[in-house]
């Protein structure tokens, strides 16, 4: 554990040549510069990255002062860093032409005001530089869900159509324009880029399921124009400059009324949903009246952050499940490869390989790239072998006789297709990160306390998910290429489009001294539990963010693991050091860097929340006052920017 493929290069015949970067594919820099501003921003970023990666290589990796575990209601960073709260729930988004609307500490802002303010519960986030200044850019930020106990002055004691509208307005995505001057970051007011996307924003379908009968509703008889995006969890940035936002626990917003049907049950839909109570005032979420509306969620949505008038596109070729994130890299021949986790116990890891190559010219030149290609699901075999199984209608068992008459059936019922294909049931796949130089892929498996329960062999501990009652989670790494028995080891070249791979564990999370063997970890360095957010910086250091629940901590007997945290790890050695700890009851998420690596943005999600408290207006206040302090009222999720006090590269 903790060892990389680097040391196994000889054994596996590993070729460390990286996949090409976007500007290598172009081959003609001036041509790119004539293309869209997105491509310009991307190109600027890439060149800056290269320069700074070299600088960082000279500095000491993990050179910061590690922080201890903490139970304080505070964000703690190394002493040589400072952290600035940038964008809290309720802060003005800065939309051009909108009157500034102040946040009311008693949560009395109307739903119309909420449409101009930051949503709740920030999660996945990406930074898009706008020009030559690496510290002037756009942040696209997911607002995963709402705590309606906090969102309204009297919580959920009464329930009205207005409250449903406010809850929907606090979901979705923010695009904000941010800039640093003299070490201070701020959100630009009156930005021509700023926008809010909500659970009601008009969108479009594209790809194999667009217009299919399963997507048609009374309000949209053509099955082409869904409204809104929900439970946007992790995210990704494409090489052509767009934001991919991912719909995770959308099932919880629908009420099936009676017993859910088999296809509804396969996606965790229930009679009453998770208690959002939208269906009481918005018929769309009543699955009895509108059974196909739920098929219109569970997708990856592509947003052009540079164009506030763009209609977001739901890319059905990438499959419908509880999408955690969408991490895009390039194959050797320049096609887009998107890695995606389906975050539920015993669900799968997927990848999409585009048919066509990425073209220079930003979004305008790549508008249909994610509509054509092959969707695969992962099978993790014994002894570190792995295989990508194609989910293609007509192949193997994906036939009309088995319920898959078209590729639309395959992508809408993606979980069922992956079941038929024989994929490996994983311990809740969360984020995927791709090493910027080696192409090695890392994934967090956050936890699965049900592993080992029941009698199904696929739910028992296996090679890739080795612990029953896995409350602490683990991280797997793999390298793409021909590596299976009978394959040629010399072709384990890291080409992201390969259909085979070789995997190993990077770390099993948990305290190495835990009493119960299942809860012990193999981390080389500072301990953590339930890894979730995962991102490489351009220097090749791996940033790990955690989302361990209080119930898991109690079960594990931990008194000292403390609040959720972010750590930095060296993938070559496995060495892991704690970089920050969050306030009480929060999850740490949304890690993204400026291209010069002088700033890292993170999100503090749901400060003050414990497992049983959603919807209770009294409890969260007692647990956390972050970030506004005891006199500030309600705890608020927020984007935070962290920089070294001396202006140096973060993490070194
Ligand atoms: Fe929204 Fe799987 O975390
Ligand atoms: Ca997550
Ligand atoms: Ca999580
Ligand atoms: Ca979360």
In short:
The protein is of the alpha+beta class. Helices cover 13% and strands 27% of the residues.
Q: What topology does this entry show?
A:
Blueprint lengths: L8 H4 L9 H5 L2 H6 L2 H22 L22 E8 L22 H4 L7 E8 L6 E8 L4 H4 L9 H9 L2 E10 L2 E4 L7 E3 L6 E3 L25 E6 L5 E5 L14 H5 L33 E4 L9 E3 L11 E4 L4 E7 L3 E3 L1 E9 L4 H4 L7 E8 L4 E6 L16 H6 L1 H8 L4 E2 L1 E6 L6 E5 L28 E7 L19 E9 L15 E2 L5 E6 L5 E5 L3 H6 L9 E5 L5 E7 L5 E7 L6 E6 L13 H5 L14 E7 L8
This protein binds MU-OXO-diiron (FEO) and calcium ion (CA) (3 copies).
MU-OXO-diiron binds next to loops.
Gyration radius, rounded: 23 Å
Mean pLDDT: 89
What's the main sheet like?
9 strands, antiparallel
- What share of residues are in beta strands? 25-35%
Briefly note the structural class of the backbone: alpha+beta
CATH classification, class level: Mainly Beta
What is the second-level CATH architecture?
6 Propeller
Count of helical stretches? 13
* Neighbour order of strands in the largest sheet: 12-13-15-16-17-22-21-20-19
Give the names of the bound compounds: MU-OXO-diiron, calcium ion
Helix content: 10-25%
Termini gap: 24 Å
> Number of folding domains?
1
CATH superfamily: TolB, C-terminal domain
**Spans where pLDDT lies below 50 across 5 or more residues:** 1-58, 611-615
CATH topology: Neuraminidase
Number of strands: 30
Shape, please?
Answer: globular
Question: Could you characterize what this model shows?
Answer:
The chain is an alpha+beta fold. The radius of gyration is 23 Å and the shape is globular. Strand 16 and strand 17 form a beta hairpin. The protein has one domain (27-46, 58-86, 113-248, 298-644): TolB, C-terminal domain (Neuraminidase), CATH 2.120.10. Strands 12-13-15-16-17-22-21-20-19 form a nine-stranded antiparallel β-sheet, with no helix packed on it. Strands 2, 3, 4, 5 and 6 form a five-stranded antiparallel β-sheet that branches. Helix content is 13%, strand content 27%. The structure holds MU-OXO-diiron and calcium ion (3 copies). One calcium ion is lined by residues 430, 446, 532, 547.
């Amino acid at each position: 554990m903790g060892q990389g493929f680097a040391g196994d290069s000889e054994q596996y015949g590993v070729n460390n040549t990286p996949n090409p970067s976007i500007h290598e594919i172009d081959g003609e820099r001036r041509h790119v510069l004539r293309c869209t501003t997105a491509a310009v921003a991307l190109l600027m970023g890439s060149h800056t990255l290269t320069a700074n990666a070299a600088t960082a290589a000279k500095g000491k990796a993990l050179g910061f002062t590690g922080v201890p575990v903490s139970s304080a209601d505070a964000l703690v960073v190394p002493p040589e860093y400072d952290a600035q709260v940038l964008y809290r729930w309720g802060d003005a988004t800065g939309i051009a032409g909108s009157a500034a609307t102040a946040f009311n500490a008693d949560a009395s802002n109307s739903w119309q005001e909420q449409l101009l303010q930051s949503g709740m519960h920030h999660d996945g986030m990406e930074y898009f530089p706008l020009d030559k200044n690496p510290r002037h850019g756009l942040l696209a930020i997911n607002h995963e869900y709402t705590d309606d106990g906090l969102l309204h002055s009297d919580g959920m004691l009464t329930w009205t159509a207005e409250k449903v509208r406010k809850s929907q307005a606090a979901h979705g995505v923010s695009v904000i324009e941010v800039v640093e001057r003299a070490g201070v970051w701020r959100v630009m007011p009156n930005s021509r880029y700023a926008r809010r996307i909500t659970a009601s924003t008009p969108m479009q379908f594209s790809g194999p399921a667009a217009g299919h009968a399963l997507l048609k509703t009374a309000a949209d008889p053509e099955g082409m124009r869904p409204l809104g995006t929900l439970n946007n969890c992790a995210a990704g940035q494409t090489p052509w400059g767009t934001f991919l936002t991912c719909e995770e626990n959308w099932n919880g917003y629908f009420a099936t009324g009676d017993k859910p049907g088999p296809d509804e049950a396969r996606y965790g839909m229930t009679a009453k949903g998770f208690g959002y109570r939208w269906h009481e005032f918005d018929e769309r979420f009543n699955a009895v009246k509108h059974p196909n509306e739920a098929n219109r969620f569970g997708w990856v949505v592509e947003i052009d952050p540079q164009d506030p008038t763009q209609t977001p596109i739901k890319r059905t070729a990438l499959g419908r499940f509880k999408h955690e994130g969408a991490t895009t890299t390039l194959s050797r021949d320049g096609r887009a490869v998107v890695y995606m986790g389906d975050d539920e116990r015993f669900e799968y890891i997927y990848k999409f390989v585009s048919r066509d190559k990425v073209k220079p010219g930003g979004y305008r030149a790549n508008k249909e790239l994610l509509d054509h290609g092959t969707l695969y699901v992962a099978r993790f075999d014994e002894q570190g072998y792995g295989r990508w199984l194609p989910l293609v209608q007509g192949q193997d068992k994906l036939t009309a006789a088995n319920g898959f008459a078209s590729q639309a059936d395959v992508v809408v019922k993606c979980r069922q297709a992956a079941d038929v294909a024989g994929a490996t049931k994983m311990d809740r796949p969360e984020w995927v990160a791709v090493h910027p130089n080696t192409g090695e892929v890392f994934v967090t498996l956050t936890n699965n306390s049900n592993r080992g329960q029941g009698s199904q062999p696929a739910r028992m501990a296996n090679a890739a998910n080795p612990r029953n009652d896995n409350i602490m989670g683990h991280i797997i790494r793999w390298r793409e290429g021909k590596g299976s028995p009978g394959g040629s080891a010399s072709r384990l070249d890291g080409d992201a489009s390969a259909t085979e791979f070789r995997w190993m564990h990077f770390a099993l999370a948990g305290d190495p001294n835990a009493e119960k063997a299942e809860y012990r970890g193999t981390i080389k360095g500072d301990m953590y539990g339930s890894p979730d957010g995962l991102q490489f910086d351009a220097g090749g250091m791996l940033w790990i963010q955690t989302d361990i629940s209080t119930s898991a901590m109690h079960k594990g007997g931990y008194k000292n693991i403390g609040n959720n945290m972010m750590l930095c790890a060296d993938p070559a050695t496995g060495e892991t050091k704690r970089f920050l700890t969050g306030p009480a009851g929060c999850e740490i998420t949304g890690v993204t860097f400026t291209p010069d690596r002088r700033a890292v943005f993170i999100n503090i999600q749901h400060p003050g929340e414990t497992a049983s408290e959603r919807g209770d207006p009294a409890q969260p206040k007692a647990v956390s006052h972050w970030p506004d302090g005891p006199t500030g009222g309600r705890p608020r999720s927020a984007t935070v920017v962290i920089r070294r006090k001396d202006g140096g590269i973060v993490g070194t």
